[in-house]
Amino acid sequence: MKILGINHDMYITSAAIIIDGKIIAACPEERLNRDKLTRVFPTNAVNFCLKKANLHLDQIDFIANSYNPSVHLKKFHPVYSNNRRFRGDYFYSIPDFLLNSDRQIKEDSDYSFQKVKLGTKELNIYYITHHLCHAANGFFLSPFNKSAILTADSSGEDDSANFLIGEKNKLKLIKKLKIPHSTGSFYSTFTEFFGYRPESDEWKVMALSAYGKKNNKFYKIIRKMVNLKSNGSFELDQSYFKQHIHNLPNFYTDEFVKALGKPREKNQNFTNRNYDVAAAMQQVFEEICSHMLNFLYRKTQVKNLVLSGGSFMNSVFNGKAHKLSSFKNVWISSCPDDSGLSIGAALYLYNNILQKKTRYELKHNFLGPNYSSDKIKKDLVKYKVKFKYEKNITQVVSQELTKGKLVGWFQGRMEFGQRALGNRSILADPRSKNSKVRVNQAVKYRESFRPFAPAVIDKYAHQYFDLVKDEKIPFMEKVVMVKKEKRNIIPAVVHKDFTARVQTVDNKTNKFFYDLIDDFYKKTGVPILLNTSFNLNGEPIVCSPTDAIRTFYSCGLDILVINNFIVYK
């Protein structure tokens, strides 16, 4: 059973292929067309996935798209079909009119199906509801046989959150929340208020929130903007928020500005007021999410929890989810944001619609392109780059890291998700506080307040970080406290509030990266490296050797490592 999953028209469009329930290949379009957060159709990603799976499109059994337009048929008006761009749009306008002629559509369906046959080629396309794709991306890749599931983001077709329960190969919807009441809208409004790009730069605001005081004077002001209801839902006071009124500028209203003061201009220095507003906003965001979780636990009474959707890119909340609710085990995939919808759509179709029984737990997210040593060498020669081949590359590079060198590290298949996990990474020595400053100023060209993550050998993680017993954080998806006695040992990866967004590394899923950290540990006694994504500010993570070479020579990195090839400046 061969399924092509597509995320089209959301941020970071993507494609994925699963065969008999297992992910064979997956890639965001932005890594291939080099347009960060691209929303174009993922043609390059589709072609990569087909090539990696050794398939042609006519060998695909089903196509799963992560948006269900049938939800909008209840609101359809013929004016939308009278001005089509070209005759090929008859595929859409004829169903529009026919389905609209019968006004009996009362409930949303979880998917729509379309069969297109041209000559001998036949495409079977399923259009699957957005939040169900988020839920599938979370649950069907999790280690849980049964779990409560919460999805939350800015919006799907017309909803902003789903409460579900997953068991074996089936998802069951409990409740959904409708826009404009949305955790994503809430956070994006403040992102824009701070002079950043909404629906893009939210993690900058999350990092900023650590610099403000908790329970400051802005907390009560922001808390009054939100009404938490007894049925697990919430409402945003629409006198402050207007993201979903598309013909008006800004996500915030004049009342919002009156309550919180003048918005920050882009590139303006941050003030203590900015810090405190960010801290209060993060605090209220966490209250909204924990309110929904507590309702979900009362409804399901299960110990396992899956979180998915863009709101759960908020790793600060993710690290607290088990403390702020009654759930014991919390799992989040490497791609809970919209990029993961292609995987989610394919898995929902395979499990929920086609009712197959095979489950595939995601142990790693190395699902993208990889490059042979011959290809890498040809590129290095083509660009006239001086390089060495090192058989014991981890030993050589770990020694360079102890000397304070900044390393671009490129290995194996590219990660799927917005975080580099050791295959497309920039690495540095966490023991030197100067490492954070150098990476921010010389490589990332970004705000000094933004933290970097520690990649730690899994068996030593509990020595450095406050983790639940046997807890693993393979996708760098949770922020946790750094133990007091360890903070001075690894200052480069400790944030303002003494937290860190941890990645635990094990010997099975990424042995090469594990060996590098282990070699560094043998030399220093510290089983941790500073790890951040291999890209410049405003660009996607590097994908190809060409991307890596160009990025290396465009910034202050000292060393580039691609497979066993090493390049010095």
Describe the 3D structure.
- The protein has a nine-stranded mixed beta sheet with strand order 14-22-21-15-16-20-17-19-18, sandwiched between helices. Strands 3-2-1-4-6-5 form a six-stranded mixed beta sheet, sandwiched between helices. It has a five-stranded mixed beta sheet with strand order 9-8-7-12-13, sandwiched between helices.
- The protein has 17 helices and 22 strands.
- A hairpin with a 2-residue loop joins β2 and β3.
- The mean pLDDT is 94.
- The radius of gyration is 24 Å and the shape is globular.
- It is an alpha/beta fold and 569 residues long.
Give the N-terminus to C-terminus distance in angstroms.
49 Å
Structural class: alpha/beta
Trace the largest sheet across and list its strands: 14-22-21-15-16-20-17-19-18
For the report, how would you describe the main beta sheet?
9 strands, mixed
Shape: globular
Multimerization state? single chain
Count of strand segments: 22
What Rg is obtained from the alpha carbons, in whole angstroms?
24 Å
Mean pLDDT, to the nearest integer, reads 94
| Count of runs of 4 or more consecutive helical residues | 17
Instruction: Tell me the β content.
Output: 15-25%
Low-confidence stretches: none
Helix content: 25-40%
